[in-house]
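Entry 14. Structure prediction run on the chain below.
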Amino acid sequence: MKLIHKLILTFSLILSANQVSATTISATLNSWENGWSEGVLYSLSGVGGGGGFSSAGLFNFTNNTTGTDFLAFCIELNEPISFGDTADYTLHPATDPEPFGTGPAVAEYIGRLYTNQYAGISDATTAAAFQIALWEIVHEDYNTNGFDLGAGDFILYQIFDTGVDLAADYLNSIDSWTNDVIVEVYHNDGAQDLLQVYPEPPPINVSEPASLTLFGFGLLGLTLMLRRKTTYKSND
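Output returned:
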């Protein structure tokens, strides 16, 4: 009996040590990144279960600990979060068991999605598709139901734009993808948990193509002006 008590005490101390050693940050939700989101109707308890409304998209946060902004997707539809909210998050490997992580199997699928599709996020549709696919991965019992937005535990009843079709394409391909990132969960008991991956994905920047286009037009205009001046001099 004493041995059992010692084992229980040791295990409790290990858990306590892990929680103390976890990094903590303060973060404030600013807005949707570039306004990228789409509205969805969903259920977390299968067909006929109680539904809810949410927006699927990419969040922009400020890390108040470092003073820098970061982008994140949420993984908990049953937890609240609003623009302007500030919360303290503890950082955990996604491979940790719930509630601090997602478990190794789910973390693997999350990593595959980030590795293969995160860099392609460029508008509201692709941001919503990525978020919907994450919700399906996190909330679904894959071993029993597979990944199907119309069946199982997580049901997507309606989306007001086209992100659902793209999310279904991601989920249909995910078994053939590989994972090249480490997934981390930003955990808070009273707010939606967030996801980050390392190495960090390439930055999402929709303004660069437009800038390059303007730069190209500028060079073209300069070339035409120089040619015109050369023609005038030749005529003189």
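The chain has six helices and seven strands.
Filed with the rest of this week's runs.
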